[in-house]
């Protein structure tokens, strides 16, 4: 009988044509031979497909989680049974979380892959013994890139890192469609409530927020957006959403989803304004968008259900999903982004890792873009996989687009 983790991995693999094509080439060319890859990512089925692709390329792979609640233990077991060093465990505490990152660093990786930058942070601050061997790294998410750019600005980043998140083939699809669909799916599976007719408040109208807002509206929700950036707020307005500050939105919202990557978005100023039964969730990287310590301090009682903590405050019930952690991954039923989306994101990861393996020593310490050729190549592979055909520029068009003397 096949292990449930192995079944999940095989299920995902069948819908990952782009990563599979890369894996076939890696098996033949072995571009990662001699490299040890240290990873801190959400350990679930799609990630396992990336791990196996990198191993097929000749690398030794060491992996742990990048969030205490996002690991799927059966998938972690399946990776271990397949000979991968995997230290991730669902529900670990902070000490165990960093101890597992340390185990990855004990292998002295030559390349690293992060989602949120906890591993790179650890190696620069506490595990400098592992620093000299690292040729370069890749970072998966917006929050990790923010932290890396801050580190670079302070002159503290000591090796090159490819900003996988920032390339179109990642954030146009992963952040928008991936977070949009999976956050809502996870909320619906956890709460069993109807979105149609509900006031859904989406905090932040960036890539993730736009995905969540658009897909919630498609399900019949009445969506309100909160923002701090006037251009993004106006974009939300022209996209047909109500825009208001959180203090106003707190009074009308039935379901709240934070997607800002910033801290203290829903706080003690807002909870007392909310209706009883309000549901709070976060899809941003860290669990600091909702002020959970305030809830804990002011609640007269807390009830725990699977994936839901209910805080009773002045007789009102405020429900918090997944302890304020990434709702699409951290609820017991959260499966993370849809497979097809991760096919693209992890194809970018695999080819960026190959690029760093080849060119890392020539790159300066700092944050680097994914080369455009990699991005376009992945888009072409995916278009071929879905059977779409593309036009090509004619010589006349190419000349026209590059000239300045064709006027009226
Ligand atoms: N859940 C997932 O699986 C998943 C996937 C991708 C990214 N992320 C994470 O989601 C977060 C957002 O990513 P993104 O790519 O959408 O970033 P983004 O920068 O495109 O969007 C963030 C938006 O939040 C707004 N914002 C900042 N502070 C705010 C505040 N106080 N109130 C209201 N709005 C505020 C910003 O103006 C911006 O428009 C990051 O933490 C990222 O790492 C999560």
Automatic annotation (TrEMBL):
Q: What class of enzyme is it?
A: hydrolase
Q: Which Pfam families match?
A: AdoHcyase, AdoHcyase_NAD
The protein's required cofactors: NAD(+)
Q: What is its EC number?
A: 3.13.2.1
What the entry lists under InterPro entries is as follows: Adenosylhomocyst_ase-like_sf, Adenosylhomocysteinase-like, Ado_hCys_hydrolase_NAD-bd, NAD(P)-bd_dom_sf, S-Ado-L-homoCys_hydrolase_CS
**GO MF terms on file?**
hydrolase activity
Q: Does the keyword Hydrolase apply?
A: yes
Domain S-adenosyl-L-homocysteine hydrolase NAD binding, first and last residues per copy: 175-334
Keywords for this protein: Hydrolase, NAD, One-carbon metabolism
Give me the segments passing through the membrane.
none
- NCBIfam families registered for this protein in UniProt: ahcY, PRK05476.2-3
**Record family assignment:** Belongs to the adenosylhomocysteinase family.
Write the protein's name. Adenosylhomocysteinase
Q: Which organism is it from?
A: Methanocorpusculum petauri
């Amino acid at each position: 009988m096949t292990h449930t983790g192995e079944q999940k991995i095989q299920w995902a693999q069948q819908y990952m044509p782009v990563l599979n094509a890369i894996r076939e080439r890696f098996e033949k060319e072995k571009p990662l031979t001699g490299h040890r890859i240290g990873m801190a990512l959400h350990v679930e089925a799609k990630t396992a497909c990336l791990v196996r692709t990198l191993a097929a390329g000749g690398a030794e792979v060491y992996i742990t989680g990048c969030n205490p609640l996002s690991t799927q233990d059966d998938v972690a077991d399946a990776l271990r049974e397949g000979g991968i060093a995997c230290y991730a465990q669902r529900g670990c505490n902070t000490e165990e979380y960093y101890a597992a990152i340390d185990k990855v660093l004990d292998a002295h990786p030559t390349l690293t892959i992060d989602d949120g930058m906890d591993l790179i942070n650890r190696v620069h601050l506490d595990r400098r013994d592992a620093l000299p061997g690292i040729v370069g790294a890749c970072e998966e998410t917006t929050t990790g890139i923010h932290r890396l750019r801050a580190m670079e600005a302070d002159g503290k980043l000591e090796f090159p890192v490819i900003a996988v998140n920032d390339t179109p083939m990642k954030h146009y699809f992963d952040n928008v469609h991936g977070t949009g669909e999976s956050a809502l799916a996870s909320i619906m599976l956890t709460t069993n409530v109807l979105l149609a007719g509900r006031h859904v408040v989406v905090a932040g109208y960036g890539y993730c927020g736009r995905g969540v807002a658009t897909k919630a509206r498609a399900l019949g929700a009445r969506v309100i957006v909160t923002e701090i950036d006037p251009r993004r707020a106006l974009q939300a307005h022209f996209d047909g959403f109500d825009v208001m500050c959180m203090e106003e939105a707190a009074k009308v919202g039935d379901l709240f989803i934070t997607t800002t990557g910033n801290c203290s978005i829903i706080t003690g100023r807002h909870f007392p304004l909310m209706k009883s039964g309000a549901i709070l969730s976060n899809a941003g990287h860290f669990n600091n968008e909702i002020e959970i310590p305030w809830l804990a301090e002011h609640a007269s009682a807390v009830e725990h259900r699977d994936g839901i903590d209910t805080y009773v405050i002045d007789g009102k019930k405020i429900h918090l999903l997944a302890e304020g952690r990434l709702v699409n991954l951290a609820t017991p039923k959260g499966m993370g982004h849809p497979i097809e989306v991760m096919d693209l994101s992890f194809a970018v990861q695999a080819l960026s890792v190959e690029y760093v393996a080849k060119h890392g020593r020539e790159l300066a310490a700092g944050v680097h873009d994914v080369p455009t050729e990699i991005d376009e190549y992945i888009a072409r592979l995916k278009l071929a996989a879905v059977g779409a055909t593309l036009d090509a520029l004619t010589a006349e068009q190419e000349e026209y687009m590059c000239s300045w003397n064709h006027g009226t």
